[in-house]
Amino acid sequence: MVEKIRNIAVLTSGGDAPGMNAAIRAVVRACSYHDFECTGIFRGYQGLIEADFEPLDARSVRNIINRGGTFLKSTRSKEFQTKEGRQKAYDNLKANNVDALIVIGGDGTFTGGQLFSKEFGFPVVGIPATIDNDINGTDFTLGYDTALNTVVEAIDKIRDTASSHNRLFLVEVMGRDAGDIALNSGIGAGAEEILIPEENLGVERLLDSLRKSKKTGKTSSIIVVAEGDKSGKNIFELASFIEENLDEYEVRVSVLGHIQRGGSPSCFDRVLASKLGVGAVEALMNGETEIMVGIHHQKVVYVDLLTAIKGEAKIDKELRRVADITSV
Q1: Do residues 131 and 17 lie in contact, with contact meaning Cβ atoms separated by under 8 Å?
Q2: CA nearest 213: which of 157, 268, 162, 283?
Q3: Is 0.90 surpassed by the pTM of this model?
Q4: Chain center to CA of 292
Q5: Catalytic residue set
Q6: pLDDT digits over 14-73, tens only?
Q7: Which value, in Å, is the radius of gyration of the alpha carbons in the chain?
Q8: Fewer CB within a 10 Å sphere, N or C end of the chain?
Q9: DSSP character at residue 265
Q10: What is the mean pLDDT of the chain?
């Protein structure tokens, strides 16, 4: 495989995440170090279909390790979901003498990459980048740590207002169907309750918890709610429900939204991106394909793309136990 590869392309797809630029940088510089050409593909799979390519060298990626988002841009491509679209993409890669592809993104990105590799026998390696941390087979995904720090900083500021006015704040965080951001930021910010999709504890338990908090002298509270919470109520309905059943609480809602996806990546995400970017290039050198380069116990690991896509990332039960104990 290493004798056949001369030019490695890289793209970012799906939702942006802090650390994507750092991963691109690592891929490009690893290519340069190992004497490969590197081709940047703009606008994800749609750019692949439209041949939106540009050669990249070590100097092309200077001063981007600290930047959030992705300078290669990202978009979702319906055309790539068709056989005809993928055929165009393959033809463009061959016409531009590209021998392998590194895709940076989440499960949707990996699904497209795995199918493309299977159809055309084209080497594809994935780098997990999503703030949700919901990819199986890796301890962390790019952007997750930065998002956590953003959320904790925001909740710290919200708590100042909550304490000043004796209010209860419901803070909604992102994460889709995963509760990692909610659970970890909730513990880190000292939340009184944390609602996550992986467990439906019910609204009555929440009311009981708030009543107990009031009896123990708490005058303000923070509840972190994951956007995929399965309590059966959206965050505004939940706020109304609490006010209707607990007269002593004045409830406010804060939806943090896309602020969690932006910003300069943390040092952790920059280092992780660098390790995974180098790992992706070296995986291709070793003849690997249809795999994700992940991190497990601080070591770079290879995980089958189908396993990464279809496997279920588990919530840390010990963290849940810690959250219950420290919120007393």
Answers
A1: yes
A2: 162
A3: yes
A4: 14
A5: 132
A6: 999 999 999 999 999 999 999 999 999 999 999 999 999 999 999 999 999 999 999 999
A7: 22
A8: C
A9: P
A10: 93
The residue whose two tokens read 């439906």 is 200
- In the numeric block, the tokens 């895709």 are attached to 103
62: how many CB neighbours lie within 10 A of its CB? Answer: 9
Total residue length of the chain: 328
Residue 82 CA to residue 116 CA, distance in Å, equals: 11
Q: Which residues pair with 305 in a beta bridge?
A: none
Q: How far, in Å, CA of 238 to CA of 242, rounded?
A: 6
Question: CB atoms < 10 A from the CB of 271, how many?
Answer: 15
Q: What is the pLDDT of residues 150-186, one digit of tens each?
A: 999 999 999 998 888 878 999 999 988 899 999 999 9
Residue 3 has pLDDT above 60, yes or no: no
The token pair at 235 is: 């965050």
Token pair recorded at residue 91 = 């033809």
Please determine, for residue 131, whether its predicted confidence score (pLDDT) is greater than 80. yes
Quick check: 185 and 174 in contact, CB under 8 A? Answer: no
Question: 230-265 burial, b for 16+ CB within 10 Å, e for fewer?
Answer: ebebebeebbebbeeebeebebebbebeeebbbbeb
